[in-house]
Design a protein that fits this description.
Elements (H helix, E strand, L loop, with lengths): L11 E5 L6 H9 L18 E6 L2 E7 L10 H15 L2 E7 L6 H13 L3 E6 L7 H4 L11 E2 L8 H11 L15 E6 L6 H9 L4 E2 L13 E5 L2 E5 L2 H5 L9 H14 L2 E7 L6 H13 L2 E7 L6 H14 L8 E3 L11 H13 L4 H14 L12 E8 L4 E6 L5 H15 L7 E6 L2
Parallel strand pairs: 1-3, 1-4, 4-5, 5-6, 7-10, 7-11, 11-12, 12-13, 15-16
Antiparallel strand pairs: 2-3, 8-9, 9-10, 14-15
Bound molecules: guanosine-5'-diphosphate (2 copies).
Length: 441
């Protein structure tokens, strides 16, 4: 959600290594504390793997392959496949090894994957908590990946130098002149298996398909495709993942999730494909949550509309009320990817969502509006006090973030009221909104 991220192609840095070497700890160290943007949805597991990150003024997407515990059986094979998936998504890799343990067979399996990929790699010798331990890291030269970068992810030791080195191996983002957009709009088609993502992509691509090989000499990312739609060129993120040319097609949900999460993070706008003929599933909700949390524009496409009869329609409307209440703002379209029916509605919906996502409200207009809604509907009195909104400003767009300065904490209900009124007044179709409250004590 950094300001630098919305346009241009942000390079992807993946953190790989066997379990327990400290990948997640390193990712948290790189990100610093990250605020949760949205409340938890009960029953939905939160397990993000991709994040916007920034160092030295450069934005990149960080992919965390930690937090995943393979069972002991077949572990080496799964670590290898996991590394393959992560590496296929990435422009560069941080390969983390536990310096206190040394090189294991699993580490060596990952090294072979990394070599084969030809992607730039930095070897990270983690858990070097103090100087005495540095000697242990020297043994890692034997991996043949060059100099080990000694760090302590836990204590932060060496992490700045590591990031400096990481920036060196990441491809340069494209040059975007002032006021100019950095390349085509980035769109991710997401959804659980079999909802019709690849059918949709094939319909959209038609004969116009161009496989992105080396756009303007910048990020080489063979898994994206450029497609002309409605007189505009769009960059479809990770179409290899959508088309299932890759290995994880055979099975593990984790790999699909890794790709989905990374595609969302790299996109500006997401099309969530749902199967109109089936109930909204927990997996659908999980993807929705990820889109909201990542702060991306969103269009919801109910596919397989040819299979939706009157009875199903009745239940679907109930499900929408129940499950999609948090994303009422997202444009919804009904399509049949198989035949192309209503496919032409996608571009207008994308345009509206992106427009809402990028909307900026001037400080003057915002405060006139805030004055009005506060007069109409003051905050309820709580414990003899009545918090007031003193002033507000939109501190970011894409997605919109507002900061309200108040005399005290606002009720959640009141925050929701402010959000609802903001949407009524200024549009914000297709975009999550974040409201930050700074209370003067
Ligand atoms: P992952 O499975 O590779 O993501 O590993 P985790 O980040 O979950 O870390 C595994 C364990 O190693 C946790 O108990 C961490 O606290 C610990 N750990 C991670 N980094 C360091 C470090 O730099 N020094 C020490 N001493 N422990 C660490
Ligand atoms: P993906 O896994 O999300 O990429 O889904 P696919 O595009 O591979 O589609 C899964 C199955 O659903 C295939 O058998 C498709 O032919 C079928 N399918 C896709 N779109 C539609 C549709 O609009 N209507 C119907 N009836 N079937 C569809």
């Amino acid at each position: 959600m950094s300001e630098a991220a919305p346009t241009g192609v942000v390079p992807v840095l993946a953190v790989v290594g066997r379990p327990n070497v400290g990948k997640s700890t390193l990712v948290n160290r790189i990100l610093g504390r990250r605020e949760a943007v949205v409340e938890d949805i009960p029953g939905v597991t939160r397990d993000r793997v991709s994040y916007d990150a920034e160092w030295g003024g450069r934005a990149f997407t960080l992919v965390d392959t930690g937090g995943w515990d393979p069972d002991a059986r077949g572990m080496a094979e799964r670590i290898k496949v996991q590394a393959e998936v992560a590496v296929s998504l990435a422009d560069a890799v941080l390969f983390v090894v536990d310096a206190t343990v040394g090189i294991t067979d699993a580490d060596e399996a990952v090294v072979r994957v990394l070599r084969k990929s030809g992607k730039p790699v930095l070897l990270v010798a983690n858990k070097v908590d103090d100087e005495r331990r540095e000697a242990e890291a020297y043994g890692l030269w034997n991996l043949g990946l060059g100099e080990p970068h000694v760090v302590s992810a836990l204590h932060g030791r060496g992490s700045g130098d590591l990031l400096d080195a990481a920036l060196e191996i990441l491809p340069e983002p494209p040059e975007a002149g002032p006021g100019e957009l950095g390349g085509p709009r980035r769109i991710a088609i997401v959804g659980r298996p079999n909802v019709g993502k690849s059918s949709l992509l094939n319909q959209l691509a038609g004969e116009e398909r161009v496989v992105v090989d080396n756009v303007a000499g910048t990020t080489v990312d063979p898994v994206d495709e450029l497609i002309d739609l409605g007189g505009q060129t769009w960059r479809f993120i990770d179409t290899a993942g959508i088309r299932k040319r890759v290995k994880e097609a055979s099975g593990h949900e984790y790999y699909a999730w890794l790709r989905t999460s990374t595609a969302i993070e790299r996109a500006e706008v997401c099309v969530l494909v749902l199967a109109g003929n089936e109930s909204i599933a927990e997996q659908d909700m999980r993807i929705l949550q990820e889109v909201r949390e990542a702060g991306k524009a969103l269009v919801i496409a109910f596919n397989k509309w040819d299979l939706v009869d009157a009875e199903r329609r009745y239940y679907l409307d109930r499900e929408i009320e129940r499950d999609l209440v948090q994303v009422q703002w997202a444009p919804r379209i009904n399509i049949t990817a198989r035949t192309g029916w209503h496919i032409d509605r996608i571009v207008p919906a994308l345009d509206r969502a992106i427009e809402g996502w990028e909307t900026r409200v001037s400080t003057g207009a915002l405060n006139a509006f805030l004055g009005r809604i506060v007069a109409e509907h003051p905050h309820p009195v709580r414990g003899g006090k009545q918090p007031r909104i003193l002033f507000g400003s939109q501190v970011q767009s894409a997605p919109p973030v507002f900061k309200l300065f108040t005399t005290g904490r606002l009720d959640q209900g009141y925050e929701r009221f402010v959000e609802r009124r903001l949407r009524e007044e200024f549009g914000f179709v297709g975009t999550p909104i974040e409201i930050k409250v700074q209370a003067r004590e």
